[in-house]
């Protein structure tokens, strides 16, 4: 239990962390990696360069300061982050190292404002917060070990299929011939690669895009970047250098953005771009297990060349007795118009959702680019959909999609 004085001091620092949090976390990561470069084998380098990881940690630290006297409020956010940590291999022994450099960052960035009393209070608070993460993650590690495997495991690419001009699917089976693990629709795996010319291992998290129960796991990867300076190292390596017969390392499935399979209410699966991948898993699972459930599949893409799973979506929706799809193209091509590859033109905005959404008490699952998700969530709430009925997933470090969300 934290003392009242510690709680008072930590909460009083929340405004400072809101103002200078990213400055503190940027300094933190710089010094952490200088002292412990091996940790770069765990962290996503792209998120570091784009500032996403720094912002995410700043959000988390600010939330911890705000709710230090009621940490139970943060448990949903803790679990979401813990899934990512378990999938990346963050272990209990990493927390003291993180604590040491976080306190150093607070002290060095704030200077004289970081009095010994403040640093001591944060040291005490960090120990309590870290233990919450450690306990949650320990359960997740034990569950993964019991149901699947621990750490990374080699999988063989048994099929590679181009789904669109930018998305390619990789069908994976255990290299040791063991059975393919089950998972919850919407979950992801971490893929770890050793890329020639890179000093450290590279890892990325990709949704499983097929239904559970198949003899394979399928990930569908968007080739990121158009200019040489912006190319995604892992996605481009997978597209260009990983082929049938090759092996990649992956972790056991993780994530809490999952289809509620005990729910029989109508469901809306709403995606933009590569956000379609977890929705494919959910859609196909519903087709397997709840073929009479009311399903509305809404997907936004720039045009037909960029839309993945066109035939698969159509076939799956047609196999359901109470399902429909609404494909929205931002800039349809003449070919798209000629072949009627889309249903609506423009964006999935408030007006479109108003005409599509018929059941306000339904379950809504949203995945896609950040701006797409922010707008979609806001528009659903404007339509009268309750917050608890809206579920969403953002890939990468947790961010604030809504002003009142913690981390």
Automatic annotation (TrEMBL):
State the organism named in the record: Metabacillus sediminilitoris
Role summary: Is involved in NO detoxification in an aerobic process, termed nitric oxide dioxygenase (NOD) reaction that utilizes O(2) and NAD(P)H to convert NO to nitrate, which protects the bacterium from various noxious nitrogen compounds. Therefore, plays a central role in the inducible response to nitrosative stress.
**Site positions per UniProt: Involved in heme-bound ligand stabilization and O-O bond activation:** 29
Gene for this chain:
hmpA
Family affiliation: Belongs to the globin family. Two-domain flavohemoproteins subfamily.
Identify this protein by name: Flavohemoprotein
Give the SUPFAM superfamilies listed for this entry: Ferredoxin reductase-like, C-terminal NADP-linked domain (SSF52343), Globin-like (SSF46458), Riboflavin synthase domain-like (SSF63380)
Q: Where, by residue number, is the active site?
A: 95, 137
Question: What biological-process terms (Gene Ontology) are attached?
Answer: cellular response to nitrosative stress; nitric oxide catabolic process; response to toxic substance
The reply to whether Transferase figures as a keyword in the UniProt entry is: no
